[in-house]
Design a protein that fits this description.
TIM Barrel
């Protein structure tokens, strides 16, 4: 029964997800489920099924598993939407889990128009994030901006599908019929399209040998290198051969393909979140000019950075990527930029949480935890009373960014999910010490 309830947490029906969570919480109260003790593990970069999660996790499922595994903090980051926000925030409250919600998208950086940043083969294009959104209920131009990036992504998908369908004619897809049903709210990604092609091929070629023959020939890849019918290697090869640079459906993006960095940061600030620059591995031309890149980002509002540690080391190996990771952490610390980390889970096989006990990451855990506590505290304070990290209140109450970081880190360490409503009593006249003192009891 408990396993069935956990599976129900991934239902596309929100009412079923909530009913399953309520029953699981009852099982906790009865001692039928034990949570692991809270530790230092955390993941503030998990995609949910509102963009793409390779395990199908809903916001409630991710929150449940995070609490069950003893994560200290958890955060969702979906592509182009904030659809997870209210559900994840409520699940964290019920589970007494420290959580926050962000968004990920792609932007154009004019100053780096000729240099590759962190979107391989695409000069001037950068993955970018906003962290700690207090609400998804936006208005005016901010609501239009958010709706616009989702609609633009959808239009890109439709156009991509048209090009790839010509190549994969035997398994051609209908976007409305075959792709959108794989999502709960119509926010499909390239990975959804890959899954749809794999499933359509199963229908067209139900015999295993014919299915293998079709994919190996069309993808020009030995069948024993592909996992049928819908394994990671098959999906990744479909994407690489048809949708990424060099693929039949690929179109080189440039200025106009994505919103500019500055306007995206303005949207994030208007929405009460923290503009966050993402870093891949320090190997591209753009990331090798990291000081210049951070200068550009910070001039338009960037106040934190994101790293995906699992991409930056091989256990037991000291190489360029690991050296770059430590160098970037040092640069971010020198600039007082909180560092937020996590594993995406938007590709099959990715971990639930980083291996923080590894020799490579263990020395960095205090720095990563600091960033996580800062963003969590910001999200809670901004949601309850509008006094978050990027607010005018914060700008006028701290003499330096370092002092602001110290306050938000302390608040994040002390504040439990059950205490959020205590913050609602404060307004712009509050002093930082008063806020911390309110949590002493």
């Amino acid at each position: 029964m408990l396993e069935q309830l956990e599976q129900q947490l991934d239902s596309f029906d929100a009412a079923q997800r909530r009913a399953a969570l309520d029953r699981l919480l009852e099982a906790v109260d009865k001692g039928q489920v034990k949570f692991a003790p809270v530790n230092t593990d955390h993941n503030l970069h998990a995609h949910t099924f509102f963009s793409y999660n390779s395990y199908g996790y809903s916001p409630s499922k991710f929150a449940w598993l995070a609490r069950k595994k003893g994560l200290a903090l958890a955060g969702t980051v979906d592509f182009d939407v904030l659809d997870a926000l209210e559900e994840f925030t409520e699940a964290c409250r019920l589970l007494n889990l420290k959580g926050c919600v962000g968004i990920e998208t792609r932007v154009f950086v004019p100053e780096f128009a000729t240099r590759e940043i962190n979107s391989p083969g695409e000069p001037g294009i950068s993955y970018h994030m906003g962290l700690g959104f207090p609400t998804a209920n936006l208005a005016g131009g901010d609501e239009q901006f958010l709706r616009g990036i989702k609609q633009t992504a959808g239009q890109r998908n439709v156009e991509l599908l048209g090009r790839v369908n010509k190549f994969l004619a035997a398994v051609a897809l209908d976007y409305e019929k075959d792709v959108l049903p794989l999502t709960p709210s119509g926010n499909a990604t390239e990975r959804h399209i890959c899954s749809a092609y794999a499933r359509k091929a199963q229908e067209v070629f139900p015999e295993a040998d014919k299915l293998a023959k079709y994919w190996s020939e069309i993808l020009q890849t030995p069948a024993d290198k592909l996992e049928f019918p819908e394994g990671a290697s098959l999906l990744n090869t479909i994407r690489a051969k048809t949708m990424k640079k060099g693929g039949v459906g690929y179109v080189q993006p440039g200025e106009g393909s994505f919103p500019k960095l500055a306007e995206t940061n303005q949207f994030i600030l208007n929405a009460g979140a923290i503009p966050t620059q993402t870093w891949l591995n320090g190997c591209s031309d753009g990331e090798q000019a990291i000081e210049e890149l951070l200068d550009v980002g910070m001039s338009t509002g960037v106040a934190a950075v994101n790293i995906i540690p699992d991409r930056n080391f091989t256990s037991g190996v000291k190489d360029e990527k690991l050296a770059n990771l430590y160098e970037f952490v040092e640069i971010a610390n020198r600039r007082d930029l909180p560092i937020v980390v996590g594993t995406e889970m938007n590709s099959p096989g990715q971990k639930f949480v980083d291996d923080f006990d590894s020799a490579e990451l263990q020395p960095l855990v205090p720095v990563f935890l600091k960033g996580a506590h800062i963003v969590y505290a910001h999200a809670a304070l901004q949601r309850q009373c509008g006094l978050g990290y990027t607010s005018s209140w914060a700008a006028s109450n701290f003499s330096s960014v370092a002092a602001k970081n110290e306050f938000f880190e302390k608040l994040g360490q002390k504040l439990t999910a059950a205490q959020h409503e205590l913050l609602a009593q404060f307004d712009a006249n509050a002093l930082p010490g008063q806020i911390l003192d309110a949590l002493k009891s």
